[in-house]
Amino acid sequence: MEHSTPTDWESVLQFVADPLALDFSERATDTTMLQTGGNNQVPTPPQSHDGTPVTDEPTEGTTLVSVSTTFYPGAQLHELPPDTVLLASDGVFFYVHASVLLASSSNHFSNLLPPDPGPCKDRDPMLTVPEHSTVLNVILHIIYDMSCAHYSPPFPTLVTAVDHLPAYGFSPKHIVVPSTPIYALLLSHAPLFPLELYALASSLDLYELAVSTSSHLLSFPLATLTDEMAERIGPVYLKRLFFLHFGRSDALKRVLLPPPHPHAPTPWCDFDEQKKLTRAWALASAYLAWDARPDLSTSTMESALRPLAEHLACEQCQEALRDRIKNLVVQWSVVKRTI
């Protein structure tokens, strides 16, 4: 897309020069439609008691301008007023600060800005970018270290925005960290999109995000992993995910193996009688270990092992069984759940 001519730029500035005349209430699309007629004036909103105004078709000579409801001319996002306008691929304007875009960019914001932008009058203040406004909105929120959660961007939009950060010279590894709003927003999607989020984190080496997401993949069947997803995850993080599953399965078998500790023989319960509990434990634990799932819950363990007490007449054997189950639950709870 070519840059607008100076005449076009002056016209756009005239349409949106007075932010106080606009409705900048936040919306999910992050845009406000401004309608201007031949007299270059923004219509005065109707009084609240007048009811809902009738929407007419735009008259001849009317121009519609879409402006971000966060990055608009009068937004107090920086100590200085915005000096650069980004035009998204769908025609939405974003008013930003060149100094903020250049602060952490290694390629001068995809080489759209000079290293030293200087005064606005010495350069073209309007830049066209190939991103859709929904993606650009997220990218700019990340750069400005602001939360965009109130827009409820779909998860694919977040993934696209983070994936495109390197194109503008920003390192996701340094900008998507646990203390940032984008990290928290991405992690909130882990329960619904664990594999996709893990793949995103792995492909960009976002270690903390990958670790936090991996606990949501304990129930994922690794055999169903596609070649495309495995390639996106990469060998290092794929190995870590497999080792997480295999390690927990081995740990489960290891903590299940020891039977309840026998008590001293009594006239009504000698060692031979206690072998019944040992055999019953071996059968029940083998049932759990046969399909040793890395996401096995402690409640499933207890529901499988506690019924053994119903067949024990000795109170000391019952106590030994309860202690063994309690110890098993504790041991399984401390087994590592992340990569």
- What proportion strand? 5-15%
What general outline do the C-alpha atoms trace? Answer: rod-shaped
What would you report as the Rg, rounded to the nearest angstrom?
A: 31 Å
Order of helices and strands: HEEEEHHEHHHHHHHHHHH
> Given the structure, what is the number of helices?
14
Helix content: 40-55%
Record the strand order, biggest sheet.
1-2-4-3-5
Structural class: alpha/beta
How far apart lie the N and C ends?
45 Å
Instruction: Report the major sheet.
Output: 5 strands, mixed
Count of DSSP E strands?
Answer: 5
Unreliable sequence segments: 1-9, 11-29, 35-55
The pLDDT mean sits at 83
Task: Please outline what is shown here.
The chain is 43% helix and 7% strand. The chain has 14 helices and 5 strands. Residues 33-50 have a biased composition (Polar residues).
Describe the structure.
By secondary structure, this protein is of the alpha/beta class. It contains 14 helices and 5 strands. It has a 5-stranded mixed sheet with strand order 1-2-4-3-5. Strand 3 and strand 4 form a beta hairpin. Helix 8 crosses helix 10. The N terminus is likely disordered.
List keywords for this structure.
43% helix, disordered N terminus, 339 residues, BTB domain-containing protein, alpha/beta, 5-stranded mixed β-sheet, 14 helices
